[in-house]
Amino acid sequence: MQLEDKVIIITGGGQGLGRAMAEYLAEKRVRLALVDLNQEKLDETAAACRALGVQVRTYLCNVASEEQVTQTIAQIAEDFGSINGLVNNAGILRDGLTIKVKDGEMSKMSLAQWQSVIDVNLTGVFLCTREVAAKMIELQNQGAIVNISSISRAGNIGQANYSAAKAGVAADTVVWARELARYDIRVAGVAPGFIETDMVASMKPEALERMTTAIPLKRLGTPQEIAHSVAYILENDYYTGRILELDGGMRL
Ligand code: NAD
User: Fold this and answer.
1) For residue 198, which atom of ligand 1 is closest to its CA?
2) Could you identify the atom of ligand 1 that is nearest to the CA of residue 195?
3) Residue of 167, 129, 169 whose CA lies nearest to 145
């Protein structure tokens, strides 16, 4: 897909990886629909992209809400007249051990802690993919969807909720690639390792240090390196159903 003038939606486009993707795609002259919970962050990203001369619209929407996602995607289709791409990037962390025993006291991961991550990181991806794919079929019978999974999909201690959601995203990337190929819609994913963003900055310093030492390339990835992979998937018409792993060699 030639990216110039195409309409691409980025969820969680207000900050972090989503912002880096927005700026990277703006440099390729893409028209952007940025979706996030945080209007201030959306405005900052939109201003940075508009400074590159592209059309940007922002949408306040919780990707975990069926009603909000349905309304927002319909609004984007009306505002732009087409939807060529979607990046399912919005995500949250609510880490904790499933069971922890300290000083004889036992604590457990709460159901709310489990459910909030499943709702945003898995159900949100399902809802956005469903609504956007339906519009792509209606509007032009073509498109590309990029799901942001994570290296944690293999199973990370303290991330029962997050690992389950990201593994689910990777599995459904294959499901949707197979279901939607007949409409010329490609679905693929990126599984980042540890990338320099606020999400990683919220980790405990000793855990972060341990992680960096374990990366064969001995550094975190940059948001631009992830954005580059997202653009690669959007542009490459023969890439579908696979996950690009960008982790500095962590899983070698
Ligand atoms: P971040 O916290 O910096 O940004 C996430 C964005 O998503 C924020 O702007 C937030 O407001 C938005 N968001 C959160 N919940 C939302 C909701 N319910 N509806 C709409 N928007 C919502 O995170 P990040 O580090 O940029 O991560 C982006 C994606 O990459 C996530 O899916 C994350 O799981 C994944 N990821 C990140 C890393 C990393 O190292 N940073 C590694 C692997 C995977």
Assistant:
1) 3
2) 40
3) 129
